[in-house]
Amino acid sequence: MKVIAINGSPRANGNTRTALDFMGEVFAQEGIEFEVLHIGSKLAPCTGCFRCAKTHECTLPDDGLNEMYQKLTQADGVVFASPVYFSSITSGMRCFMDRMGCIDMNNGRQFRFKVGAPLAVARRAGAVNAIDELIHYINYAQMIIPGSLYWPLAFGNKPGEVAQDAEGVQTIQVLAQSMAYVMKAMEAGKAQIPVPELPRKSFTNFIR
Ligand SMILES: Cc1cc2nc3c(=O)[nH]c(=O)nc-3n(C[C@H](O)[C@H](O)[C@H](O)COP(=O)(O)O)c2cc1C
């Protein structure tokens, strides 16, 4: 069983990474493998070309997105973690979700019924909005979203400060515990309850 976390911060070893490491400790106790993919600021934005509908991979110049997508399709759980930039997720996380989401909705929806969790780290404000943005994608991908004792956020500014937010750290740890529980419960139930068939999606635009 494996969880992959996307670190949406341009800073590889900032507060988002520290927060994810708290989750990693819980996953280790639960016997679950954990890997953090740092997307940094290298990803180009989606151009809306929709070539991925045919190729099932992004055809923009290779910046590692397709490799990350392939890795995520093998995971049982995914954490989408971002620092808050101007009350929002980072532009890197936006690029990642747009491009990966576009591939996946045209590739049999590989994230259906995986466990997905949002996580936001902020200095002071905007974390709930960032969580909402992350949830919009996780929910669209038909992932199962576990909760914690509070919304999945923690506070910190300079790298490492997030470790001082005791309530935030507990929230993150319990989030990891909830993910582990749901992943294990779903794994146990899979043999008895088959995943429903993927229906053909109706696209009805508001144009007559
Ligand atoms: C461009 C920029 C915008 C930011 N905007 C906000 C914000 O709107 N609200 C907030 O609470 N913190 C904001 N911050 C602070 C970061 O969210 C905070 O420092 C966070 O811990 C960074 O995480 P990291 O160390 O993983 O990069 C901003 C930081 C930067 C660089």
Instruction: Return residue spans where pLDDT drops below 50 for at least 5 consecutive residues.
Output: none
Q: How many strand segments?
A: 5
CATH topology tier name: Rossmann fold
CATH superfamily heading = Flavodoxin domain
The top level CATH class name: Alpha Beta
Contiguous helical run count = 6
Helix content: 25-40%
Major beta sheet summary: 5 strands, parallel
Structurally, the number of domains stands at: 1
Order of helices and strands: EHEHHEHEHEH
Q: Based on the coordinates given, report the CATH architecture.
A: 3-Layer(aba) Sandwich
Q: Taking strands numbered 1, 2, ... along the chain, how are they ordered across the largest sheet?
A: 2-1-3-4-5
| End-to-end distance | 47 Å
Task: Characterize this entry briefly.
By secondary structure, this protein is an alpha/beta fold. It is built from six helices and five strands, in the order E-H-E-H-H-E-H-E-H-E-H.
Overview of the molecule:
The chain is α/β, with parallel strands linked by helices. The chain has a single domain (2-190), classed as Rossmann fold. It has helices at residues 15-29, 52-55, 65-73, 91-105, 127-140, 166-190, and strands at residues 2-7, 33-38, 77-83, 115-122, 153-155. The protein has a five-stranded parallel β-sheet with strand order 2-1-3-4-5, sandwiched between helices. α5 (127-140) links the parallel β4 and β5 (153-155). The protein is globular, with a radius of gyration of 17 Å. The termini are far apart. Residues 9, 11, 14-16, 83-87, 121-126, 156-157, 159 line the site of flavin mononucleotide.
